[in-house]
Write a structure and sequence with these properties.
This protein has 323 residues and is an alpha+beta fold. Helix content is 17%, strand content 37%. It has an eight-stranded mixed barrel with strand order 11-12-13-14-15-16-17-18. The model has no long low-confidence stretch (mean pLDDT 94). The chain binds pyrrole-2-carboxylate (PYC).
């Protein structure tokens, strides 16, 4: 039996175009459980499964299909601000960078003072966040690293893709292309064919979060003069990230660092599929891994109380007339 959490309040924001729904307890505060307790209550046979009516909180018809939920929990340690569990309409995420920026903005909106380098616990490790003087939110991510460079997969439509497998809080397959493909629908279809090839060929990352490569990042020259590169990130629920993707930018920094294409501390401006920007830098942690820092803007768009009508056939996310 999966544990039921009485979700009450929500605050919606978007980070550089990508939506986040922060879920809070009925009194508007953090959930009284720790992240480990929430995960334990939702784990069956060693697999974390978000119950369907919680997945539904970031699915149609309640939310735009790119929405990521961030459930904010009591910290497990005195030195941490909170714990947070991220998921999209499909499944849990490891880390979520845009939602961490959204969470930082949401906490400020709720009157929670985020101390400099506030520790936020996630299921793949601690990140630290802070609000900058100009209102942007910055976070130092979990260590990022490249697992393998120039790995080739054969595509169902013919031809091959070549990419780096890198960890940035989620596993990414990063493909560099000479130019954007014109329409997002074409990029979505191409990235989807790569993800299917990864699954068909059984390609895996390293041990972090089970090694499943579930994000594809296409990287092109930027369209903005003030950016270093543009990306298009396919997420596991089949949508694309409207922000430059915090974990995807982190994985890309690891790839750039491994290739000697970006020095520690140097600024990298990552443009998203829709033209928004994250500023990124890294510090070297050891021979294999880096600590990425990602900075972006988030904007509050709504706040409210969730209603789960027992007569609503779509309350668990999909339209089921007899549910
Ligand atoms: O910003 O890390 C991110 C992210 C992951 C999935 C959607 N956004």
């Amino acid at each position: 039996m999966q544990k039921n959490l009485p979700i009450g309040r929500f605050i919606d924001s978007h980070t550089e175009g990508e939506p986040t729904r922060v879920l809070l307890a009925p009194d508007g505060g953090f959930f009284p459980e720790t992240l480990a307790e929430v995960i334990a209550g939702w784990t069956r046979e060693n697999r974390l499964e978000i119950p369907s009516h919680y997945l539904a909180l970031c699915a149609n018809p309640r939310a735009a299909d790119a929405m990521v939920c961030a459930l904010v929990c009591r910290p497990s340690r005195a030195d941490a601000l909170c714990g947070v569990l991220f998921w999209n309409a499909n499944a849990p995420l490891g880390m979520c960078g845009h939602a961490t920026v959204g969470l930082g903005r949401t906490l400020r909106h709720s009157g929670v003072v985020m101390p400099p380098r506030a520790i936020i616990e996630t299921r793949v490790g601690d990140v630290t966040g802070e609000t900058l003087a100009d209102g942007r939110v910055s976070f130092a991510n979990v260590p990022a690293r490249v697992h393998a460079c120039d790995v080739q997969v054969v595509l169902e439509q013919g031809g091959c893709a070549r990419g780096d497998i890198a960890w940035g809080g989620n596993w990414f397959y990063i493909v560099r292309l000479a130019r954007p493909m014109g329409a997002h629908a074409d990029e979505l279809a191409y990235a989807g064919s790569i993800l299917r090839a990864i699954e068909r060929e059984g390609l895996r990352g390293g041990s972090e979060n089970g090694g499943q490569i579930d994000h594809v990042e296409l990287v092109f020259p930027p369209s903005r003069a003030d950016a270093d590169a543009r990306n298009f990130v396919l997420c596991p629920n089949g949508t694309f990230d409207r922000s430059p993707c915090g974990t995807g930018s982190s994985a890309l920094l690891a790839s750039l660092a491994a290739r000697g294409e970006l020095a520690p501390g140097a600024r990298w401006r990552q443009e998203s599929a829709i033209g928004s920007i994250f500023e990124a830098r890294y510090a070297r942690l050891d021979a294999d891994s880096i600590t990425p820092t990602i900075t972006g803007r988030a904007f509050i768009v709504a706040e409210g109380t969730l209603v789960l009508d027992p007569n609503d056939p779509s309350r668990t996310g999909c339209w089921r007339e007899n549910s």
